[in-house]
Amino acid sequence: MQFPRMKEIREEAGLKQKDVANALKVSKGSYSMWECGSDTIPLKRLNQFCNLFDVSIDYTVGFSNKRKYANAKPDIKIKVTGENLKKIRNKKGLTQVQISDALNINQPTWNRYENSKNLILTVTLVELAKKYNYSIDKILGKDKDSDN
């Protein structure tokens, strides 16, 4: 999954891939694969990247042209994330099976996300946000003020 703004953000800061890799404490190869889209960046690393450059996840993945939210929080709140996933599902009037099918995951996996047992995967979160028009930062509890 490619997020073209990762390269743009890095280059605007005048950094090389190895500089960002070092800051994120990953290999240059891993970072390079995330930036070019040959591998999907794990959500916690995406959050670290966004914190490093003081940009929102929504901006980084191309969901918003707003670089930063006024009241952005640096951390992903797994409990808030789970609660927000459940709220989204209920707001859409979907069962766990229905939303799981829509996102091409199995129901027990969705259940673990909703119950804060596992942090949702980047690919699934992006698909959910895109499909149902939600802010990723809001879902993750990083932005309390965005509308959703």
List keywords for this structure.
single chain; 148 residues; mainly alpha; 10 helices; 57% helix; 0% strand
Question: What does this protein structure show overall?
Answer:
- The chain has 148 residues and is mostly helical.
- The model has no long low-confidence stretch (mean pLDDT 94).
- Helix 2 packs across helix 3 (28-36) and helix 7 (96-102) packs across helix 8.
- The longest helix is centred in the middle third of the chain and has 14 residues, at 78-91.
- The protein has ten helices and no strands.
- It is globular and about 45 Å long.
Secondary-structure map with pairings?
Layout: H1 5-12, H2 17-24, H3 28-36, H4 43-53, H5 57-60, H6 78-91, H7 96-102, H8 107-114, H9 122-132, H10 136-139
Helix pairs in contact: 2-3, 7-8
Compute the separation of the termini in Å. Answer: 24 Å
Poorly predicted parts: none
- Indicate the radius of gyration in whole angstroms: 15 Å
Overall outline: globular
Query: Main beta sheet, described?
Result: none
What average pLDDT do the residues reach?
94
How big a fraction of the residues is strand? under 5%
Number of strands: 0
Give a short synopsis of this structure.
With 148 residues, this protein is mainly α. 57% of the residues lie in helices and 0% in strands.
